[in-house]
Design goal:
The structure holds two protein chains of two kinds. By secondary structure, chain A is mainly alpha-helical. Chain A has one domain: MetI-like (MetI-like fold), CATH 1.10.3720.10. Chain A has ten helices and no strands. In chain B, helix 5 packs across helix 7, helix 16 packs across helix 17 and helix 16 packs parallel to helix 18. Helices cover 32% and strands 20% of the residues of chain B. In chain B, strand 23 and strand 24 form a beta hairpin. The radius of gyration of chain B is 26 Å and the shape is globular. In chain B, the strands form four sheets. Chain B has an eight-stranded mixed beta sheet with strand order 6-7-8-3-9-10-12-11, with helices on both faces. In chain B, strands 18-19-20-15-21-22-24-23 form an eight-stranded mixed beta sheet, with helices on both faces. The longest helix of chain B is centred in the N-terminal third of the chain and has 18 residues. Chain B has four domains: 245 residues, P-loop containing nucleotide triphosphate hydrolases (Rossmann fold, 3-Layer(aba) Sandwich), CATH 3.40.50; 67 residues, no CATH class; 215 residues, P-loop containing nucleotide triphosphate hydrolases (Rossmann fold, 3-Layer(aba) Sandwich); 102 residues, no CATH class. The chains are: A mainly alpha, B alpha/beta. Chains A and B meet through helix 1, helix 7 and helix 8 of A and strand 18 and helix 16 of B.
């Protein structure tokens, strides 16, 4: 006698471990894996840069300035004689740290405000949405440039500015996802139990919009990385001699024909991170989009 | 057995299903949904396909129109419509068959209509394509079709959008759409599920009229045996993808020859047999791949031999005499046929109403008014107006009415999810709270109530699937209210297991997610969550309407057991009068948010009634042969959208309407004794006389 296990059947034979695993399991496709691997490699390299880098990323060496790739300098050197490979290995640290902090802050604030707007509705929702509209109407890079010019380019300033700039879009997405949840009976049941906003958010809403938030996290992260690197390129982000991809491109672009690797290597590194983040975001979105449990969500 | 002796009809059959098997792919396995199904339908015949959800009914209905759900494929057999194979035919053949031979009415008619297109234009589109009519002629023809499906004011209705129609009207438009191609076969997938009783009776009457007028053949998929008995003269009962019994409806329902049919019939709540129906244990989900008879694990007649070998084949049922006409004979796939036929009727299994000890008054609602209107409007009144209610401990008070009658609004107000506009709602019996004897004010919202008050009032929802958080385990759902009661760790786990066992589940279920449970189990979890709160008052909002009949019966019994065990008071909201008759002690009938009748259940079901209650009772379907419902006129299914500011809310539909009185003055209460009273201007004696006239 064979027993059939379908999602609808009485799963007497389903081990409890699977039940737990299924809650957080992420159906994986090849491109998702590729994306996650790219991101992981970038993070690992940034963390392990002091071990991997053959030279100091900031120590100038006038004798070996502007050299092509060689045995001593695999990717050559820049105009101050700094080893390009070492600078590229270190170069992700600044962008990753700032972007990660800004993304986490954006997602946390955005999720809370988005859920709050969906849960409370009424005047709070209205006012919040109008404020967001006005922020959304200002181009991101312009807003950041104004902030940095006025308040300086310290890391906390840039993190906060990026958060303010990217929160509105995230709040809108989370609010839309949460709106389809707050009307459901299990939220009503929680309200009838007398639960306040925070328990309802944490127990009833959050687990059901987790996939949306995950996709948003990966997507916002790639945008913010680009934004931070753009700022550095424009000279408003990392200050010399900090090794940073955006800054490296800016410093070395005039020598593109002489030592192309000094410009191309940081671009490739930045591209790998952003492509990785985008692939991961797409993969998660696709995988969760067809998820039957939240079929109505997207 | 391949084809049950219907070969002689082959040449004339409009639909012929032979040896049809369909599988769908799940992971790396093929799961059978239909197995060796053979059916034949003569022109003009009406065949019902019944069974619980998951038995393959809808798959069969889709196969009849040549549609397979993605991922499924035909492994054997064929479906012939008017002699042509619709599953193997070319795209052109299939289109031609669908255009000229078959009309399909999908399960949810409201969702099957295009929301951005006028309903007339949707029908005209079909007419212009199939009959090559020009624009004006198509429009006129659409109006004619609307008249044929008994839609009121067809000429005006063609210019409406779907959202401007009621559920029953949408269903009629969907039928008109299916009829536009002048089909010879109409396939109806759960055509009345989700409709109000009065609307349902009207739509079923329409099917009968259409058959008489057009000679059209019907295949009706339904889990509602009453609806089936009203329309179809032949029936095929499906279990786990197989036809287990087929024959004429009336003898099949009188003396079922398969234990599964017997189980289904015994699960139906009957208005004529007050009490809770017997129900059937288990569910179909476990049965799809069993060897031998798939029904054996749930069967009261099963023997060891039933679980071995191949599935039993359909054999002619001859015990009640010679087979009269070939092709209309009865067949049953049961190895224990003689025993099943000889078994006594199942009425003995109905659990009669137990004597109730009516406790202290628990909930008192007085003059409750809820107004959703944004600004005052002299032509309409508040949504719920001047409702009085008392629920005692250990008592079930049923709120009855069509959708839009304000039943759920009242429950939500009591639950503290809405603030009443005026009136008082009081929780009287606080005996379960130590040291607290004062009545609690329930006009406050849940967030502002005392925690002890919140615990005392618990909700159970209609749709168990949306009532449980899909990402949290069953255990989480039940432990949460226990935590709010102050139980910690081991105590909470022990209490959780106790609650689970109390609703017929196992402690092992605590680790599951709601998606891994069957519909009946989910509803049990919903009930368990309410019980875990330690309530004295349970608000049950249509708790069994979304469930299969077999599960309905067991959930009703569970509710009754819990009421007795915990001495609970229920506010039981339902539109199913047969279910209400079985479980309720007192009935409150609502129309447009106004109480029009209330009283003890025996009085309401056996005495003089308000005209609206009379209409509701006349619309109740029955599986008994002579139990056809009163065929209401189309006007009967037109609940007004807004309640009137003055007068009787029911006046526009009332046959006893007194001009100049009913629309001017709110009707007075007429006391009929034992707490039974109706709110009507017409003297009770006149109402009763008129009622007898209707019956005769």
């Amino acid at each position: 006698m064979s027993v059939l296990i379908t999602p609808d059947s009485d799963p007497a034979a389903v081990p409890t471990g699977r039940a737990r695993a299924r809650r957080f399991a992420l159906p994986v496709t090849r491109s998702t894996v590729a994306g996650l691997v790219l991101v992981a490699v970038n993070v690992l390299v940034a963390l392990a840069a002091p071990l991997l880098a053959p030279y100091s990323p900031t120590q100038p060496d006038a004798l070996s300035a502007i050299e092509g790739p060689s045995g001593a300098h695999l990717l050559g050197t820049d105009q101050l004689g700094r080893d390009v490979l070492s600078r590229v290995l270190y170069g992700g640290r600044y962008a990753l740290l700032i972007s990660l902090s800004a993304t986490v802050l954006t997602v946390v604030i955005g999720t809370i405000l988005g859920c709050l707007a969906a849960y409370r509705r009424g005047w709070l929702d209205e006012i919040l949405m109008r404020i967001l509209d006005s922020i959304l109407s200002v181009p991101a890079i312009l807003a950041l440039l104004v902030v940095v010019t006025a308040l300086g380019s310290g890391a906390p300033v840039i993190i906060l500015a990026a958060t303010v700039v990217y929160c509105p879009a995230l709040i809108r997405v989370v609010r839309a996802a949460a709106l389809s949840i707050v009307g459901l009976d299990y939220v009503t049941a929680a309200r009838a139990r007398g639960e306040g906003f925070w328990p309802v958010l944490a127990r009833e809403i959050w687990p059901n919009i987790l996939d949306v938030v995950m996709v948003e996290f990966a997507m916002r992260a790639s945008w913010i990385v680009l934004l931070i690197s753009s700022l550095s390129f424009l000279g408003f982000g990392a200050n010399p001699p900090t090794p940073d991809w955006g800054l490296m491109v800016s410093e070395n672009r005039s020598l593109l024909t002489v030592v192309p690797m000094a410009t191309v290597a940081p671009i490739l590194a930045l591209a790998s991170l952003i492509v990785g983040l985008n692939l991961a975001a797409d993969g998660i979105a696709k995988a969760r989009g067809i998820d039957r449990i939240t079929g109505g969500l997207r | 057995m391949r084809e049950p002796a219907v070969k002689m009809m082959k040449s004339t059959a409009i639909a012929e299903v032979s040896g049809l098997s369909i599988c769908y792919r799940s992971g790396e396995r093929d799961v059978p949904v239909l197995r060796d199904v053979s059916l034949s339908l003569a022109p003009g015949e009406a065949l019902a396909i019944v069974g619980e959800s998951g038995c393959g009914k809808s798959t069969l209905a889709s196969a009849l129109v040549g549609f397979l759900r993605s991922g499924s494929r035909v492994t054997a057999g064929s479906v012939r419509i008017a002699g042509e194979d619709i599953l193997a035919g070319s795209a052109q053949t299939v289109r031609a068959l669908r255009r000229s031979q078959i009309g399909f009415v999908p399960q949810n008619a409201g969702q099957s209509l295009t929301p951005s297109m006028r309903v007339g234009a949707q029908v005209a589109e079909v007419l212009r394509m199939t009959r090559k009519l020009d624009k004006a002629a198509a429009r006129a023809e659409a109006a004619k079709l609307f008249a044929q499906v008994r839609l009121p004011q067809p000429d005006a209705l063609v210019d409406r959008y779907p959202h401007q129609l009621s559920g029953g009207q949408q269903q009629r438009v969907a039928v008109a759409l299916a009829l536009a191609g002048q089909p010879r076969l109409l396939v109806l997938d759960e055509p009345t599920t989700g409709l109000d009783v009065v609307t349902q009776a009207g739509v079923l009457a329409l099917f009968n009229t259409l058959r008489a007028e057009l000679g059209i053949a019907l295949v009706m998929v339904s889990h509602d045996l009453g609806a089936v008995a009203t329309v179809c003269e032949r029936i095929a009962v499906m279990y786990a993808g197989r036809v287990v019994e087929t024959g004429r409806t009336e003898p099949t329902f009188r003396q079922p020859s398969h234990p599964y049919t017997r189980g289904l019939l015994s699960s139906v709540a009957r208005i004529a047999a007050p009490g809770l129906p017997a129900g059937m244990p288990g569910s179909v989900a476990d049965a799809l791949e069993l060897s031998g008879c798939a029904f054996a694990p749930r069967c009261e007649f099963a023997q060891d031999s039933c679980t071995q070998g191949d599935a039993p084949e359909l054999v002619p049922v001859t015990a009640e005499g010679a087979v009269a006409v070939q092709g209309t004979a009865r067949y049953s796939a049961c190895l224990r046929l003689p025993e099943v036929l000889a078994a006594p009727a199942w009425e003995s299994e109905v659990r009669p109403r137990r004597p109730r000890e009516r406790g202290e008054p628990l909930l008192e609602v007085s003059g409750l008014t809820v107004d959703y209107r944004r600004r005052p409007d002299p032509h309409t009144g508040p949504t719920v107006s001047d409702v009085d209610l008392v629920v005692h401990r250990g008592e079930v008070v049923a709120l009855v009415g069509e959708s839009g009658s304000g039943k759920s609004t009242i429950a939500w107000t009591v639950a503290g999810l809405r603030r009443p506009t005026s009136g008082t709602v009081t929780l009287l019996d606080r005996a379960t709270v130590p040291g607290e004897a004062r009545p609690a004010d329930l006009t406050r919202t849940a967030a502002r109530r005392d925690p002890a008050v919140r615990r005392q009032v618990q909700l159970v929802f209609q749709n168990a699937a949306t009532a449980l958080n899909p990402r949290r385990t069953v255990g989480d759902a039940i432990v949460r209210p226990l935590r709010l009661r102050g139980l910690r760790r081991d105590g909470a786990v022990a209490a959780r297991n106790q609650v689970l066992e109390g609703v017929g589940l196992e402690p092992g279920h605590a680790e599951r997610l709601p998606g891994q449970l069957s519909g009946g189990q989910q509803q049990r979890v919903g009930i368990a969550r309410a019980i875990a709160g330690g309530p004295t008052l349970v608000l049950a909002d249509e708790v069994v309407s979304a469930l299969d009949v077999s599960i309905q019966a067991s959930v009703l019994r569970l509710l009754d057991d819990l009421r007795e065990e915990h001495h609970l008071g229920y506010l039981f909201i339902s539109h199913d009068l047969a279910v209400v008759r079985g479980i309720a002690d007192r009935v409150v009938v609502l129309y447009l948010g106004r109480v029009c009748e209330e009283g003890p259940v025996e009085k309401v079901y056996g005495g003089a009634n308000h005209p609206y209650t009379r209409l509701l009772l006349a619309s109740v379907l029955s599986t008994e042969p002579d139990g056809a419902p009163g065929t209401g006129s189309a006007a009967d299914e037109q609940p007004e959208s807004a309640p009137p500011a003055v007068g009787c809310p029911f006046r526009n539909r009332c046959p006893h309407r007194v001009e100049g009185l009913c629309d001017q003055e709110t009707p007075p209460w007429q006391e009929l004794g034992d707490g039974h009273r109706i709110r009507c201007h017409v003297p009770v004696a006149d109402l009763s006389a008129a009622e007898l006239g209707v019956r005769a």
